[in-house]
Design brief:
Number of strands: 0
Distance between the termini: 101 Å
Helix content: 55-70%
Structural class: mainly alpha
Low-confidence stretches: 1-7, 216-228, 500-509
Strand content: under 5%
Radius of gyration: 26 Å
Largest sheet: none
Shape: globular
Mean pLDDT: 86
Number of helices: 24
Length: 509
């Protein structure tokens, strides 16, 4: 395997002997090696380039140069696309008018990403799972577009027009080129992210990220030692590295034993009872997820080791380092709804989709969000099949929760039964939905769905038709109208009461 993928590796060949020994593609070996190097640099960065010891300028320069070095090692001259994408978007932000700057920047950035994805997929290596250069560009796309919207909110809108989260994220000045490149291409997140807000990143660089969150502790310990000293990320970093090791071991042990492709094998489909096919699909997807757990948890540990990611304290006074965490493993594996699964999977991407699309799209935000997610992920047809299926799944899950769940809340035992049933349904629905995401092509994806007779598609459509439910925006609007009506009635009552009191006083006089 290693020798077959050597030619497709665009980065350094220094670790080729190790790739051949462990029989893994060279690009993946380079990726893991660079992430481990970034982890060591993160510890050095926190200890020797602490904000109390050096200026933000030096921290920006070092973080950016280390990021470019890792990009060159992994992707060679293809990493110039990172600079091209960032440079084009920065030019749009500087020269375009503030009123429409965020829209132009969104189109240019996402368009450049899609163009690179098209050339990589349909010109170079269709279907190869490799650490390609468009992976980091996906994270950079999130950062650039988020930054453009936050600048637009901060410079063109009044506070009354912004939601609380938009007020927190709004940026009141245009970042310098160095700050911009440091935010997009720093060594902590250049290879695997995660996405973070510009304000949080600047607070980390300037050393002001601890003070506001020292005062958020609920048990009163903010006046003790936690306010006087910065919390150490050591325990959280060690815990996350242990999670990485376990995830990598599980993935390498099971990925070849439980391939998803077996679900479309003719002998398997014809000779295996349907209930066993369902169980196998769940186990195959369960074996696939640790790969993502490893990558995202390691990226989170790197940021924490550098001192980035502090998010206040728990009720027992222990520090939380989950500000930019990308997943919650237990909440994923025990999710009892489609939405709960998605809320805990790739968290920062979900927040990005919510902030730039769902909250701002005036027409059918759910469908628009799934479509944007498919476009951002790439140009494989399987991605679009997955996210189109996800729209129907989400609508059906929402209808079931709205119409059926209240009947199971009458007692704890009924609720536990409901949770068990919805957990099983959620895991099967997720596995069914993401099969095209793994198979990539249209033919194999439809072959799988035909072997299942499109049963979950039809069931979800039936549920959506039979159990209608108002959209969340309509519910929020109705609730707001109700509150306004109650407020008007209260004001009218107070007004009538005041009039009656005045009339009684007049009569008494």
């Amino acid at each position: 395997m290693a020798t077959q993928t050597t030619a497709s590796c665009t980065g350094s060949t220094l670790l080729q002997p190790i790739s051949e020994i462990i029989n893994l593609p060279l690009d993946q070996v380079n990726f893991v090696a660079c992430q481990l190097f970034a982890l060591l640099m993160a510890v050095w960065f926190r200890l020797y380039l602490h904000p109390s010891k050096t200026s933000p300028f030096i921290r920006h320069v070092v973080a950016t140069l280390l990021g470019f070095y890792l990009a060159l090692f992994c992707f060679g001259w293809y990493s110039l696309h990172f600079l091209m994408q960032s440079g084009l978007s920065y030019s749009v932000m500087v020269f375009a008018g503030l009123e429409h700057m965020h829209k132009y920047c969104f189109i240019v950035t996402l368009g450049y990403l899609i163009l690179c994805q098209i050339t990589r997929v349909y010109v170079f290596d269709y279907g190869m799972y490799s650490a390609d250069f468009t992976g980091p560009m996906m994270v950079i796309t999130q950062k650039i577009t988020s930054l453009a919207f936050e600048i637009h909110d901060g410079l063109t809108k009044r506070e009354g027009q912004l939601t609380p989260s938009q007020k927190y994220l709004a940026i009141s000045r245009m970042p310098s080129l160095l700050e911009y490149l440091s935010y997009n291409c720093n060594f902590m997140g250049i290879l695997a992210g995660p996405t973070c807000s510009y304000n949080d990143y600047m607070a980390f660089i300037e050393g002001t990220g601890y003070q506001p969150r020292h005062q958020e502790n609920a048990n009163g310990k903010e006046n003790g030692k936690y306010k006087q000293s910065e919390p150490s990320p050591k325990n959280d970093v060690i815990s996350k590295l242990c999670t990485c090791a376990i995830s990598l071991f599980i993935y390498l042990s099971l990925c070849k034993l439980l391939p998803v492709e077996r679900s479309i094998n003719d002998d398997f489909v014809n000779n295996t009872p349907f209930h066993l096919q369902v169980i196998y699909l769940y186990l195959a997807m369960l074996a696939l997820r640790p790969k993502y757990y490893f990558v995202w948890t390691l990226a989170d540990a790197i940021n924490n080791a550098a001192g980035f990611g502090f998010n206040g304290y728990n009720k027992d006074g222990s520090p939380r380092w989950d500000l930019i965490s990308n997943l919650r493993i237990l909440d994923i594996e025990f999710a009892t709804s489609f939405k709960l699964f998605l809320d805990n999977w790739n968290i920062q991407t979900a927040l990005w989709l919510k902030r730039v699309c769902y909250e701002r799209c005036p027409i059918n935000p759910t469908a628009a969000t799934f479509l944007l997610s498919a476009m951002w992920h790439g140009v494989y047809p399987g991605y679009y099949l997955t996210f189109l299926t996800g729209i129907v799944m989400t609508m059906a899950a929402r209808a079931v929760r709205h119409n059926i769940r209240p009947y199971f809340l009458v007692s704890d035992s009924h609720k536990r039964i409901y949770d068990v049933i919805t957990w099983a349904c959620t895991q099967v629905a997720i596995s069914y939905t993401v099969v095209p995401f793994v198979l990539l092509a249209v033919g194999p994806s439809f072959k799988f769905y035909r072997s299942w007779y499109f049963c979950l598609h039809l069931l979800c459509l039936l549920v959506v038709v039979a159990l209608p439910v108002k959209s969340r925006r309509r519910q929020a609007k109705a609730q707001q109208d109700g509150l306004q009506k109650d407020s008007l009635q209260e004001n009218q009552t107070e007004h009538n009461s005041t009039d009656n009191n005045c009339n009684q006083k007049d009569k008494a006089t």
